[in-house]
Amino acid sequence: MRTRLGTLLLALYPEGWRERYGEEMRTLLEDDPPSAGGLASLVGGAARAHVRPRRSCREGPATSSMRLSVGALFASWILVSVAGACFAKETEHMDAFEHMHPLLSAAREMIAWGAGLGALAVAVGGLPLLWQALARAGRTRDRRLALLLAFPALAGAALVALAAFLLLVGPARGARFPVAFVLTILVPLTLGALACALVAALAPKAVMRRTEPPARLLRLACWAGQALALATVLVACGLLLYVPALWSLGGAGTAPTGPFGASTLVTLTLALAPALAAGAASLVAAARARRAALAA
């Protein structure tokens, strides 16, 4: 079991790293199954390999670099979109406070502009790649590719079905968030939503690896990715501006409205961390995408 877990964790490493060291690491894991500390070390090593890749792992065809950068940009957008969706849900009742505090209104405008720009960038850079993948799946009758293309929709349908089932058989919430409601409905729904977001973030990378899109489409996606990185940063900065401003209002956002009965303040504070991580990752990916597009 420890060997299988370690082998699965190797998928977290960059593609260039896996191509160079993957076989050697798999052999090492089979000969010496990792402990819990070893598994944690593999996760940490994957993070370091993405942040500070070795020169030998960065070298390679420009098309491969563009493909990996586009995948990273889209994954960062999915991550910040989860935080943005949390913001939209949690601040539905905050109109009165936003009129009182101009920073709250400015932050909301920043997030709205980021969401609009991100949607446009995904359409410009992503739709041609999607059309190319669909055309190839139909032309070659590649069932695995068709399944990869369907994964995000299937994950969304499974999440809707899970929500409907849990609401049908689960206990009523009432005026508060009782423990039974949290454990039987909110926890499974939260885990399901995170799994759905993970599928949506990783599926495009797997599709591009299988289809190997032409360089012209990847260049277009890389330049659209510059706008996508800007959109990600706008949403992250909007949250970074909104949360401290909301804390400064004292009693604002203290009602238990968020998941597990947390207040709006606490929920938005927790959403801020992944948003900032997505913003930083998108800037790194955008810089790599720009260099790869210029080199292609």
Describe the structure.
The chain has 296 residues and is mainly alpha-helical. The termini are far apart. It is built from eleven helices and no strands. 83% of the residues lie in helices and 0% in strands. It has two domains: 1-59, no CATH class; 62-145 and 206-295, Four Helix Bundle (Hemerythrin (Met), subunit A) (Up-down Bundle), CATH 1.20.120. The model has no long low-confidence stretch (mean pLDDT 83). It has helices at residues 2-9, 15-31, 36-51, 55-58, 62-90, 95-100, 102-140, 143-169, 179-211, 215-248, 264-295. It is globular, with a radius of gyration of 21 Å.
Any descriptors?
296 residues; mainly alpha; Four Helix Bundle (Hemerythrin (Met), subunit A); 2 domains
Brief write-up:
The protein is an all-alpha fold.
Number of helix segments? 11
Q: CATH topology of the largest domain, anyone?
A: Four Helix Bundle (Hemerythrin (Met), subunit A)
Oligomer: single chain
Average of pLDDT: 83
Structural domain count: 2
Structural class: mainly alpha
* CATH architecture heading of the largest domain: Up-down Bundle
Biggest beta sheet attributes? none
Please write the string of helix (H) and strand (E) elements: HHHHHHHHHHH
Tell me the number of strands: 0
Give the end-to-end Cα distance, rounded to a whole number of Å. 43 Å
Strand content: under 5%
Provide the CATH top-level class of the largest domain.
Answer: Mainly Alpha
Radius of gyration: 21 Å
The residue fraction in helices comes out at over 70%
Overall shape: globular
